[in-house]
Amino acid sequence: MQRQNNSLTSMNGGALTATENKQSMRIGDLLERRRPCLSFEFFPPKTAAGVETLMATVKALRILNPGFISVTYGAGGSSRVRTLEVVKRIKTELGIEAMAHLTCVGSTRDELRTLLRELETAGIENIMALRGDPPKGDEAFTAVEGGLRYATDLIAFLAGEFSFCVGAGAYPETHPEALSSTDDVRVAVAKVAAGANFLVTQFFFDNEAYFRYVDRLRWEGVTVPIIPGIMPITSYDAIGRMTRMSGARIPQRLLAELEARIDEPEAVLELGVAYCAVQCRELLARGAPGLHFYTLNKSTATRAVVSALIAANAVHELVPG
Q1: Strand-pair category, 290-294 with 165-170
Q2: How many CB atoms are closer than 10 A to CB 228?
Q3: How far is the C-alpha of 124 from the C-alpha of 114, rounded, in Å?
Q4: What is the pTM of this model?
Q5: Which residues form the catalytic set?
Q6: Domain definitions of the chain by residue range
Q7: Which residues contact 53 (CB under 8 A, 6 or more apart)?
Q8: CA distances (Å), 213 to each of 71, 158, 176, 192, in order?
Q9: May I ask the CATH class of domain 4-318?
């Protein structure tokens, strides 16, 4: 594939280029045109003031020329209206492609159709299709009557009735509910067979886990892009909670360094950003199609990581649009 020298940051401050505006902004196509493709994930705030703060945060990321911004559906599917509002505004007001998350939680097929038609009308072309977590207080996921049970069902529903570009989740260190890593790979293969156009992984800190996982999926015949999910460590306590929920493992050497700084929050942040920059540079050097940053609605650490990559000349080229 031909490559063209092109600064990651653009003269228009990161907004879509004229060429990209004329072309499809389906993420599957974008991943073919742009390498690496950097993307950032946010969750919808609970208040109108929070939305304005989030919009300012996303606007500050335009200088990094993101390929797309994704907006989650909220715990238990509780924030679908806010998700819709935010993805519309990111696309129309900031000129950045936006991807809405969609889950099976609490919705019938008819309710999902209504929401998806509204997204179509708003010009949203990309959907992240997930089963979703059980509502707070429920131990296990239960589909509502007339609803969908699995992410594969939602993906097939989208592929059968709509024309969205569909992303799906992937788990290099195995989904906490999977019976085994083999079972987890089987599910990922099924998601692609159902119509997923690309995969985005859970965050991880051991790059070999990602590359082993990609190799297993390629062996199974999966050819879609597999974007690594990235989360800079900014707090010892916070990353402990996140890894317990997700099943992601912190390499022993990194954990030891974090524990040595447990009483120095700024030192933990500095180490976390430095480690993440090194991790991202290796991922890109070894062929990852992009990086998807889980920001937790804060951009400072993510901007520091991407700035380090720019300084190291690790993301200075893009496949031309």
Answers
A1: unpaired
A2: 27
A3: 14
A4: 0.88
A5: 41
A6: 4-318
A7: 45
A8: 25, 26, 16, 15
A9: alpha beta
